[in-house]
Each structure stands twice: as C-alpha cells, then as structure tokens.
TrEMBL record:
Protein name as catalogued: NitT/TauT family transport system ATP-binding protein
Keywords (A to Z) from UniProt: ATP-binding, Nucleotide-binding, Transport
Annotated InterPro entries: AAA+_ATPase, ABC_transporter-like_ATP-bd, ABC_transporter-like_CS, ABC_transporter_ATP-bind, P-loop_NTPase
Organism: Pseudonocardia thermophila
Superkingdom assignment: Bacteria
Residues covered by the ABC transporter domain: 5-238
SUPFAM superfamilies reported in the protein's UniProt record: P-loop containing nucleoside triphosphate hydrolases (SSF52540)
Pfam families noted in UniProt: ABC_tran
SMART domains named in the record: AAA
A molecular function GO annotation: ATP hydrolysis activity
Species classification: Bacteria, Bacillati, Actinomycetota, Actinomycetes, Pseudonocardiales
Length: 262
C-alpha cells in the first residue's frame, strides 16, 4: 500500500501566555491508501491535534504532514473530518446539514444530483424519514449518524473520525461500528479514527497506533490480521483477539502510573 498520509517527525507545541503545552513530539508514521487505522492513547496526548494537522486546520511546529507526498499547507479538501465535538448546524435540517459539504469548494453539481447523493447517504446511515428534522430533534446516536452522512457525502479519499462513538451506549456503538465497517469495506477509502476503546480499535482497524502520554509519541504499532469482512458482534471471541488486546493494553498501561486516564 502506498502511503496516502505521512507524518514526518511531527512536533507541535501550543503556547498559552507563558505556558507551553508539548502536544506532539517527533511523530513519524504512514497511513496506507485504503487503510483503516486506529489511534489510541491517554487523554490529552495529542490525538485530536494529529487529526487537526491532517485536516490542515493547523500546522505542525516542526516536521511535515503530507498528503499523497505533498505537505498539507492549508485546509486539506481531500479529507473529511468527523470532529470530537458535534458540529451539526442547529438551524439546519438533517438533509441540509448532510448537503453542506457539497456546497463547498466550488463543486459543480446539479440540484438533482445533490439531492440524490444526500438521499443515498442519509439512507446508508439509517436516517431515512428524518431528513426534515433539526439536530435538536434527534437522539445522540442519530446526530452521530447525521455527522457520518455529512462526512461521507463528499466522498472523500480520507475520512478522519475523532471518537465517533465515544458517548454512545454499548449496543448502539456496536450497531454503528457494523454500519461503518459495511460502508468502509465497500469503498476502499482510507479511514483514520481515534478511540479510547481497545475492543473497537481491534474490531475495526487494520493497524492500531498506541500513543504515549503527552507529549504524544508513538509507543507501539500493532497490525490486526483478523480476516474481513468482520463481524463486530462476534469478533471479540475470534482466535487472536485476546492477544491483540493484551499487547495493546500493556503498551497503554505504561503511561498509567503518570496519573493519566485512558
Ligand atoms: N488549539 C489549542 N490551543 C492550545 N492548546 C491546545 C489546543 N489544542 C490542543 N491543545 C492542548 O494540546 C494537548 C493535546 O490535546 P488533544 O486535544 O490533541 O488531546 P487528545 O489526545 O485528543 O485528548 P482526548 O483524548 O481527551 O480527546 C492538550 O493538553 C490540549 O490542552
Ligand atoms: Mg481528542
């Protein structure tokens, strides 16, 4: 797999008055075209920062983030980003929110094409019948689905997701993970997602990167060679799953003594 994303010795320091926060330190990694990569690590270790850099929302202090070999030096329009915070526009309906990215970047698309594309992705995430609802009229899980549809509608080469299912109940989480896998396995697109849930990381990903406590460095990388298509409901009982879990957990545990939570 040729890399679609490259992080070359990336460091990032935030300044707030006289205090400095070293968010990332010398991160070097590649993401293959079509790969599904999970990033796990203690709270505050720079995971969202890494996604923000990938989306071009901020620049690294030192080092480079490259998309298909070129440094990302502005908003990266090839990626779509489901941010940690819900950012649906409250005054727009589901259909209008989902259609939003299609109006950006000067894309020429007829009204009919647009409507068809929106309907397709609304259906894909199971929100049919809720097109005219406003975000405040949706449940938490439905809002996540709407965000997912809005990210997919753009048909990006890379989808970034920051703890997409973090706040959801266990059952809904499994259902949405299954939907995500079904969607992703059909497209061959690249997916990079952050999670605090090791089971989720192993169930979905081709590879899991474990980051250290701040300043975030890459502590371990685990290739998940479980066969696809995967069944998120049963995969935790698959041979090898427990070994992956143990190895990832030991890598994460290394930072627990520093009082960091995962
Ligand atoms: N825009 C910013 N300005 C100043 N400091 C920031 C900014 N963004 C992040 N930070 C700091 O950088 C560090 C890493 O933040 P980041 O959001 O990347 O962590 P994270 O790994 O995503 O954590 P969590 O798991 O809690 O979401 C934190 O200490 C945070 O306070
Ligand atoms: Mg975060």
């Amino acid at each position: 797999m040729s890399p679609i994303l490259e992080y070359r010795d990336v460091s990032k320091v935030f300044f707030k008055g006289k205090t400095q926060v070293h968010a990332l330190s010398h991160v070097t990694a590649e993401v293959g075209d079509g790969e599904l990569l999970a990033i796990v690590g203690p709270s505050g270790c720079g995971k969202s920062t890494l996604l923000n850099l990938t989306a071009g929302l901020m620049q690294p202090g030192t080092g480079e983030v490259c998309y298909r070999g070129r440094p990302v030096d502005g908003v990266n329009t090839h990626v779509s980003y489901v941010t940690q915070k819900d950012n649906l526009l409250p005054w727009r309906t589901v259909a209008e929110n989902v259609a939003l990215p299609l109006g950006l970047g000067g894309r020429r698309m007829s009204k009919a094409e647009r409507a068809e594309r929106v309907a397709h992705y609304v259906r894909m995430v199971g929100l049919e019948g809720f097109e005219e609802h406003y975000p405040s009229e949706l449940s938490g899980g439905m809002r996540k689905r709407a965000q997912l549809a809005r990210s997919l509608v753009y048909e990006p080469d890379v989808l970034l997701m920051d703890e997409p299912f973090g706040a959801l109940d266990a059952q809904l989480k499994l259902v949405l993970q299954a939907e995500l896998l079904r969607t992703w396995e059909g497209t061959g697109k690249t997916l990079v997602f952050v999670t605090h849930d090791l089971t989720e990381a192993i169930s979905l990903a081709d590879r899991v990167i474990v980051m250290s406590a701040r300043p975030g460095r890459i502590r371990a990388v685990e290739h998940i060679d479980l066969p696809r298509p995967r069944d998120v409901f049963g995969i935790r009982f698959a041979p090898g799953f427990g070994d992956y879990f143990d190895r990832l957990w030991s890598a994460l545990r290394a930072d627990l003594h520093q009082g960091q939570e995962i």
